[in-house]
Backbone:
């Protein structure tokens, strides 16, 4: 049997028509097939490979740590260098109120942990999130998801979840003293790149503070440089009580985190003890990879170039005739007007070696989120290939 046949027979499918592209290696912004096929990855594995594929610093960190040890025990019991150095590096670049880290394996786990923490700390049960928001696919995260299309088949879900409209200040009145936490994205990614309004977030922070509600920022997709700053919340001047990171944090390795103050996080350490546990969360190899990512971004010019690259990419796309574009840093959504046109164009791109994608809650919009390391020459090449397709 070929790899394709084995894939279709034995790997769980979540869509009737998977891309089915076979990849044997990847480097920088390129993916390579077994017969010499070459693809430009313009979505970074859904904003994961922000330093490109197989970044030398990440590869070396993984190899070096794997040769020493991989798994010991986590739960915050053993002390080992990759984990504590990663926590220290993140604490150095975050506000002082976000100094305690619970490392997990994926974004949805970070969401689950944060929701448990909020309920435990506030002793309240109500969770408020936004319509058209995506926070993961496990039960708690799915309950917070703002799309009935993706959750109705799995009901009953966890009770106590309510939704408000993103960027609508009047809806903030629906947050009450019964609310444990508001879970929200700074940029609604799966809605097709909807950027949060600064005034809205300022009033949201004020409302949460007044009512003793914890404010949770989901930066699983925007965090670690995607918007041009290490964290998107830095650009709106509002600090959350809990921060969620994932995707790009590991440079291709599976790691995420929910982050709070030490005072808040201690709620998980008693009544009961081990209030949240994860077998692989904070694994030494993934922490080593994440540390390499943070250090690379901290000690290079990559972050400072994100906005100019985003502006160049948007400008060139508009010159091609794409007029309906939403952008934040190197997150772009191109609106094609309807799903059929969008899907047909995305397929045409893939058939011609350009990997783009659509958004879960906005199927008429095409996703472009290239590695932050993309060069101006690679942007020009992408644009020329698009021009040929058009």
Residues:
């Amino acid at each position: 049997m070929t790899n394709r046949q084995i894939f279709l027979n034995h790997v769980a499918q979540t869509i009737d028509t998977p891309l089915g592209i076979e990849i044997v290696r990847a480097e920088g912004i390129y993916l390579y097939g077994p017969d010499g096929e070459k693809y430009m990855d313009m979505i970074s594995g859904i904003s994961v490979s922000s330093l490109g594929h197989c970044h030398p610093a990440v590869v070396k960190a993984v190899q070096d740590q794997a040769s020493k040890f991989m798994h010991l025990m986590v739960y915050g019991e053993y002390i080992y260098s990759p984990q504590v150095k990663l926590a220290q590096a993140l604490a150095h670049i975050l506000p002082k109120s976000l100094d305690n880290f619970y490392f997990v394996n994926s974004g949805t786990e970070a969401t689950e942990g944060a929701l448990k923490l909020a309920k435990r700390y506030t002793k309240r049960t109500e969770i408020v999130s936004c319509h058209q928001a995506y926070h993961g696919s496990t039960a708690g995260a799915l309950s917070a998801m703002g799309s009935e299309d993706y959750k109705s088949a799995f009901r009953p879900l966890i009770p106590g979840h309510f939704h408000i409209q993103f960027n609508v200040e009047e809806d903030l009145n629906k947050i009450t003293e019964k609310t444990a936490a508001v879970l929200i994205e700074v940029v609604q990614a799966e809605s097709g790149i909807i950027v949060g309004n600064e005034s809205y977030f300022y009033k949201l922070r004020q409302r949460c503070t007044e009512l003793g509600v914890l404010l949770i920022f989901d930066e699983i997709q925007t965090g670690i440089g995607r918007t041009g700053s290490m964290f998107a919340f830095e650009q709106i001047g509002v600090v959350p009580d809990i921060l969620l990171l994932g995707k790009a944090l590991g440079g291709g390795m599976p790691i995420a985190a929910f982050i709070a103050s030490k005072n808040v996080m201690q709620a998980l350490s008693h009544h009961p003890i081990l209030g949240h546990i994860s077998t692989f969360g904070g694994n030494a190899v993934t922490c080593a990879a994440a540390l390499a990512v943070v250090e690379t971004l901290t000690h290079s010019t990559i972050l400072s170039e994100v906005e100019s690259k985003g502006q160049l990419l948007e400008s060139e796309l508009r010159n091609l005739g794409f007029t309906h574009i939403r952008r934040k840093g190197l997150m772009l959504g191109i609106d094609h007007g309807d799903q059929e046109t969008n899907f047909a164009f995305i397929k045409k791109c893939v058939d011609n070696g350009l990997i783009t994608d659509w958004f879960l809650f906005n199927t008429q919009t095409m996703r472009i989120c290239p590695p932050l390391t993309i060069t101006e020459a690679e942007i020009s090449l992408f644009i020329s290939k698009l021009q040929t397709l058009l």
Notes: The first strand starts at residue 25 and ends at 27. The CA atoms of residues 105 and 254 lie 5 Å apart.
